[in-house]
Amino acid sequence: MKIAHLLLTHSFAGTERYVVELANAQALAGHDVTVILHKRAAEQRPNAIAHRFNEHVQKVSVGGWGFLSFWTARRALMQLHLQQGLDVAHAHLSAGCRALRGLEVSFLRVATLHIRYKPQQHLHMDALIAIAPWQLKDVAADQIARTQQINNWTQAKPATPSARQELRAQWGIADDEYLVGALCRAEASKGLDVLIKAYLARRPAKTRLALVGGGRDWEALRQLAPADVLMPGFVEKPEDWFSAFDAYVSAARSEPFGLVFLEAFAARLPVLSTASEGAQMFQTMIARPLVPCDDVAAMSQALQDLAQERPTQLAYDLSGYDCQTQVKRIEDFYKAQLATNSQHK
After folding, report:
1. Domains of the chain, with CATH numbers?
2. How far apart are the first and last CA of the chain?
């Protein structure tokens, strides 16, 4: 198949990981894959996106300020279709979906619901992929038959063998200190401000907190947190930090799926989380009471309980979140929807 992905964000996070891993896997499987990216995604910085695609994925860069980038992406997409004859255009997030709106074309227009169903973004699509079951309840009635829930996946890399010892020594973590870590974008939806306040309200004995990841709220969070709260910013090897953690914490106000849960599970970490949508989906695996979102007192008590218990590494069954299996399901979904699409266009 000839597949084009539209991703017009600038910095690497969960959605971007999904697109990179999907496009790479599809190209390795023999498909002709092109990714249409904003030119800022190819900048020379650690959290850029373009350099993460393998050599089999073609990349097309487009410009445009803000949401206007979808116009240049649309032109690039139609030029690509004229040159190659696309089978599938797969949109990701708002601007990618906007680029496909109003097009009367033979190829399949599909979008992944990375956050939630939004009519202004998704109502015009030929087909939808939900990453979590809870998203299905909001899909329009006349689209639900062409929507399928397909799990996100993990391709967690093994940590550098010496990473735990080196990172803990570098950041001054004593051998008897229990390191509770969060790894996510520094933005309001992740609730890191609540986590810092909860930690400071009643510091658990011999426990340290690490907040790993960059984002627009990093400076404000750094001012809120005392110096002994670890905040290394964006890191190239998150797997090394997972190895340094003794437990993982999510204080998210909203987490549609939570790829980071899979990464924490792959690192065998005990998990403490708020009752976000993603955490509720994984509640059986988390096997701890979920904390109400945006509740400093409840999170503070949960941190106390975690620090007193000091749970050790756990084994999780991640067989339902294998990359190869989920990518094959997406390919089969494309084929089924293309067959249906041809009957209606």
Report:
1. 2-153+322-344 (3.40.50.2000), 163-320 (3.40.50.2000)
2. 19
| Average pLDDT value for residue range 44-54 | 95
Q: State percent of the chain over pLDDT 90.
A: 93
Q: For 288-303, what is the mean pLDDT?
A: 98
pTM score = 0.90
Q: Are 281 and 261 in contact (CB under 8 A)?
A: no
The amino acid present at 173, given as its one-letter code, is I
Distance from the Cα of residue 110 to its chain's centroid:
18
User: What does the alpha-carbon distance between residue 314 and residue 206 come to, in Å, rounded to a whole number?
Assistant: 21
Strands (E), the chain: 2-7, 32-38, 58-62, 88-92, 108-113, 127-130, 147-149, 178-183, 207-212, 230-233, 247-250, 271-273
Handedness of CA 19, 22, 25, 30 (dihedral sign): negative
Residues 6+ apart with CB under 8 A from 307: 178, 180, 204, 205, 206, 207
Task: For 264-283, write each residue's pLDDT tens digit.
Answer: 999 999 999 999 999 999 99
Q: What is the pLDDT, as a whole number, of residue 248?
A: 98
Residue 196 and residue 224: Cα distance in Å, rounded?
7
- Rg over alpha carbons for the chain, rounded to the nearest Å, is 21
